[in-house]
Amino acid sequence: MWKSFVDHLTVDWLGLTGRVNETVNFFIYDTVKILFLLVVIIFVVSYLRTHFNTEYVRAHLQGKSELYGNVLAALFGIITPFCSCSAIPLFLGFLQARIPLGVTFSYLISAPMNNEIAIAMLFTLFGWKVTAIYIGFGLFVAIVGGFVIGRFNLEKYVLIPVKPIDEKLEAGEVKMTAKARAKEAWEYTWDIVKKIWLYVLVGVGVGAFIHGYVPADFIAKYAGGDNWYGVPLAVILGIPMYSNAAGVMPLVEVLTQKGMLMGTALSFMMAITALSLPEAMILKKILHTKLIAIFFGIVGVGIVCIGYLFNFILN
Question: Which of 75, 156, 172, 213 is most buried per CB count within 10 Å?
Answer without folding.
Answer: 75
